[in-house]
Design goal:
The chain has 143 residues and is mostly helical. It contains six helices and no strands.
């Protein structure tokens, strides 16, 4: 098999396999973890791996379709990633009392604050962007 056909067939296999795409995402995490440990960086390896993935996607060297199924699969199964946190809560019964309610209030308030601030920032930036046309200025021709 010549190299060109091999590359094309491997791309097709990669685009169809959720497992391979999930493995590729895990490989980016592992590379980031290795870089973080070797360079003694205070940044988690997952962040470095995602930054590397972002650079490859932004440069066009990697297409998003190559990882879409794997990412969708990981997002669909995300509940499995939270099972250890639930088990930790069961080990620490104090989280089920007043302390837990206080923590829940802080998390909910912080989440609402971040979501509201992000929404207002996006709205403000979209209003201030020079290339944006006002809805009143857009003409709709009835043809």
């Amino acid at each position: 098999m010549n190299p060109r056909k091999f590359m094309i067939s491997s791309r097709l296999i990669m685009r169809r396999s959720r497992l391979l795409q999930g493995g590729a995402l895990a490989a980016f995490w592992a590379v980031g973890e290795g870089v973080s440990r070797l360079a003694h960086l205070p940044v988690p390896g997952g962040i470095i791996g995602l930054a590397l993935l972002l650079l490859l996607l932004a440069s066009g060297r990697l297409k998003s379709i190559s990882l879409r199924r794997g990412a969708d699969w990981l997002l669909a199964e995300m509940l499995l990633f939270f099972v250890p946190a639930v088990l930790a809560v069961l080990d620490h019964r104090e989280f089920l009392g007043l302390l837990g309610l206080k923590l829940l209030a802080v998390v909910l308030t912080g989440t609402l604050f971040v979501m509201g601030t992000t929404g207002l920032t996006v709205d403000l930036c979209s209003r201030l962007s020079p290339g944006r046309l006002s809805p009143r200025l857009v003409r709709h021709d009835d043809k």
